[in-house]
Structure formats: C-alpha cells, structure tokens
Write a structure and sequence with these properties.
With 152 residues, this protein is of the alpha+beta class. It has a single domain, classed as ATP-grasp fold, B domain (D-amino Acid Aminotransferase, Chain A, domain 1), CATH 3.30.470.20. 20% of the residues lie in helices and 33% in strands. It has four helices and eleven strands. A three-stranded antiparallel sheet has the order 3-10-8. Strands 1-2 form a two-stranded antiparallel ribbon. A two-stranded antiparallel ribbon has the order 4-5. β4 and β5 form a beta hairpin. The chain is globular, with a radius of gyration of 19 Å. It starts with a strand and ends in a 9-residue tail after the last helix.
Length: 152
C-alpha cells in the first residue's frame, strides 16, 4: 500500500526518544518464513487434547530452522494446559525453498508419548494452495471441512 507508513518509537538508554518512520515500500521483503505451532492435540479426532509424558524427542535443526519450546523427554503434559508445546520456524530465500525446508524439518521432528499436530502441518506443507499462497483467513477451516482428505 503506497500510503502505509511504519513508525517505530524507540526509547534509548538515558531516556532519549528516537522516532523512526519508514514508508512500506522502503522496507524490503527478504525471504519467506513459516511457523508451525506444535500442539498436544489429535487432529484426527477434532483436535482432542492429548496429555501424557514425552517419551522421545528429536528436534530438527540446521541453517534456517529454529525450535522454540520448553519440553524435554520426561516432561508431562497435563490435561488442563495450554496445548502448545513448541514452535517450529523455518526461513529461506524463496517460498519454494522455505517450504522444502519446512517439510524436511517436520519429517525430522520426532516426538513420542503424546499425539501432536505435526501430521496436520506435514499435510499443509504439501498442499498446492499453500505452495502457491492461495490462502485466506478461513482457509484452514475450509481445508479441514467434511470433504477434506487432508489427514487421510
């Protein structure tokens, strides 16, 4: 949008205030990133909670791959919890390369003892609409509809 401006208010040490303003067009887009929120939920059963103990964990890594989490082997996910157990974030120079990296990282992620949303993210990462960025705010809701073979 040509008229969109981003203004950042920065409070520097010693109480100095600096205001930085940028036109949207002045901010370059560099690469693509995807974030998968890994939850202890069973996507095959209406995202039913899946409490339990983490019995095995292999975290993906490498250039452009980040795993943010608090879990470890032996951690018990309680039944009355926020089901988020980790975020898998990938970045690469193009959408195509970032999706390849995401697919690899999701395959490398090994988590046993609880059901997770990892299979859902794996299916989404291979979807043509996701690959071509033909998505919208209700995409997942429609994608998971009664006719969807997403997790079959």
């Amino acid at each position: 949008m040509p008229g969109l401006w981003l203004t950042v208010l920065f409070v520097a040490p010693l109480g100095l205030t600096v205001v930085l303003s940028f036109a949207h067009a002045e901010i370059p887009q560099i690469g693509h990133a995807f974030q998968c929120r890994i939850n202890c939920e069973d996507p095959d059963h209406n995202f039913r909670p899946s409490p339990g103990t983490i019995t095995a964990l292999r975290i993906p890594g490498g250039c452009g791959v980040r795993w943010d989490s608090h879990i470890q082997v032996g951690y018990t996910v309680p039944p009355n919890y926020d089901s988020l157990i980790g975020k898998l974030i990938v970045w690469d120079e193009s959408r195509e390369f970032a999706l390849r990296r995401l697919k690899r990282a999701l395959m490398e992620l090994r988590l046993s003892g609880v059901k997770t949303t990892t299979p859902l993210h794996q299916a989404l990462a291979t979807d043509e609409e996701v690959r071509t960025a033909n998505v919208h705010t209700r995409f997942l809701e429609q994608w998971l509809g009664p006719e969807s073979p997403a997790l079959s």
